[in-house]
């Protein structure tokens, strides 16, 4: 790290979001700004109204799908591995492994490199490129599941639970609550990998983003909108829907439904009960405790800033590894796509 340059002098939190002063841009700002660098398409990171928005082509496609009226002039696509100069800062995007198009923002200024990881996971995911550890001077990490209790089990093991339940209760409909962006498409791919080649039915609110994934080259197999079903009883079927729909009148049309929820929070029994899940499935799009700790070792940064979740526990762990760590207290982050 450059001894004479304090990284806080050129990248720091503000009420609008994380601000890069020599580039005059924000990363994942909480409000519309003149220039933004967006790490991925979830709503707590990608918001409408920016005059200029730099992101991967896939993230910009997601934003166009979610936000009507995005002007072409506001969109600045940057592919993984490419670099662009903004003001005095070189900006590059590297895969984050979180969802389609998700990226780490790699910022270089006066010989110093800061990596803003956004949200990330280390598990294989056929819907997006894997996370790439980037050596840096400062690493900014999320901490959604930064407690030792959070050890995510095998994804295929959790999908196996779902398929065993379907086989055990063939007369019932399995309603699986999934977040629309990332989790839905990943669960579909996991089901396909586990051998489920039957039609997967979808709540209408999931269709647009599934179509986008298919347009981006992610094959989801036989999927269909529940509303298009004719003479379908849905007995023995798997139906994906937003978690909120499990308790909605919409769910009453199905045959003695088995409510399931896919989330890293299903590790917590109280959260599983609160969600109404008869079948909690621990499938997360975020790194668990072990993966967070391993990532700190992999990037080798002498300084770590922690945000979005259990900052204190990860700061303590980082310091025990000899890393200069502190919480970065960013506003506007939510549990979206966990």
From TrEMBL:
Keywords: Ligase. The keyword Cytoplasm does not apply. One of its GO terms (molecular function) is RNA endonuclease activity. It comes from the Bacteria. SUPFAM superfamilies: Metallo-hydrolase/oxidoreductase. The lineage of its organism: Bacteria, Pseudomonadati, Pseudomonadota, Alphaproteobacteria, Hyphomicrobiales. The keyword Ligase applies. This is DNA ligase-associated DEXH box helicase.
